[in-house]
Input
Amino acid sequence: MSAAPDADITVIGNTGDDIHLFGLKVCPDLDTVMYTLGGGIHEEQGWGRAGETFAVKEELAAYGVGPEWFGLGDRDFATHIVRTQMLGAGYPLSAVTEALCARWQPGVRLLPMTDDRVETHVLIDDPEGEGRKAVHFQEYWVRLRASVPAHAVVPVGADQAKPAPGVLEAIADADVVLFPPSNPVVSVGTILAVPGVREAIADAGVPVVGLSPIVGDAPVRGMADKVLTAVGVESTADAVAKHYGSGLLDGWLVDTVDAGVVEEVEAAGIRCRAIPLMMTDLKATAAMAAEALTLAEEVRG
Amino acid sequence: MSAAPDADITVIGNTGDDIHLFGLKVCPDLDTVMYTLGGGIHEEQGWGRAGETFAVKEELAAYGVGPEWFGLGDRDFATHIVRTQMLGAGYPLSAVTEALCARWQPGVRLLPMTDDRVETHVLIDDPEGEGRKAVHFQEYWVRLRASVPAHAVVPVGADQAKPAPGVLEAIADADVVLFPPSNPVVSVGTILAVPGVREAIADAGVPVVGLSPIVGDAPVRGMADKVLTAVGVESTADAVAKHYGSGLLDGWLVDTVDAGVVEEVEAAGIRCRAIPLMMTDLKATAAMAAEALTLAEEVRG
Output
């Protein structure tokens, strides 16, 4: 937003890692965007609310009700309570998200990729036994800390999902489409798995520019390398670009430490620039966004 | 329990003042019994949990989600979250209550009067306009502090409700049935409105003894006089006894300040004693229970 203060920005959020906990609908990705842009995020942690207390979680544990591995704070609970109540009253997730954002004023239009239920499951080696089993992404990611081999990532329900109201329209009306340096498999990949989204991006006829989530052969944040392995993609800045492919991606930003891959990415038909890609502060992040827009204009030619 | 430490006690709780708040099922009477006997009650307040914080409530208010007049604390929220999740999973309220009591160990068997939905509504003078309207009991009691004239009290759904599993059996197996000094209209009265309960008490063939909730022409606690007026009963210790009637009640305890009504109650066919009836501490409360059991034995003859 700092890079283009007058722009109308729509953020399409992944809902594949949504989960029902304690009977409440939790949307980690939507909430992280909402809290971050709305000024309520726990900055160091990168998710959840600042200044949290944990009375509800402690009480649930006293009742023996789990899971205990998902750290919901009291303030965060309120968001999930409001969301669950509205969903129960019949509002689609997109309308609920809009209502929640009315408080947070994130400065962008935040849309869930779909109002339909999609749940990313991960096929893992069963940590408690022989063989493999499929677990909810959050169980793999948060409970197991991605510490067991993952063999497949399946966005269950995505093939039947419809893009939420406004998603295809936002893409069709866009001047530029940006892929953030998010997880290419379980975040961006899940959004692209909703039928119609990938096609809409390709048909929009506007520059599509991505920022590499891999810097120096390791994910900037999180454990993206684990799920990249599961889908057979190397954890390198160029492999991720080629995973998206030139059919989708027009431009790609890699970090200066990965300047060596620029030529290879360009050989794959994707314009590539090496710039500092660490979101150390707001200024650095705005500079990255500005570079992405510059690259988009280059592509547009 | 102190008055009869070896007794198996079943408490049948009113569920007519249950309410859905923020999409969660709240059972004030069941929880008050559970928290009180389980050692978690806010002693001075007489409801809710001790040591509460209010982060969730503050956040809900920040979302503009009400009602704000019902003071749920963070700890209390956890109880309602567990209950709502279990109900959503298909467990009846009686099973949910048993599960919650597994933590609290109240020392009695706590049963909801019914697993079916019953909601006590109160017909009031509309505080914001002309005419009358029906509101949920909690709105009348908590929001309006019973400050507007009430014309009728209707336990909506009670006529279709079935006693919860164990209720009729507990009454049939009882040696004594006690009516606590609770609200005779919206607490005890609602339980009696569930078809089969009143008959089971009459058919049990055991002493039925009540404790007056009115001391010196005023309710001991709360605003019972308001709803007594609504059903055409005077707020006196003898009027409440006659409201229950000799067909139901065998014995009645009034406070010493109401010793003057003993004769009149006995003339109505209900054995009556005047004893100190203020539950000032555990010892005084145990003495009241002991007197009730003594009166029951007198009645049994």
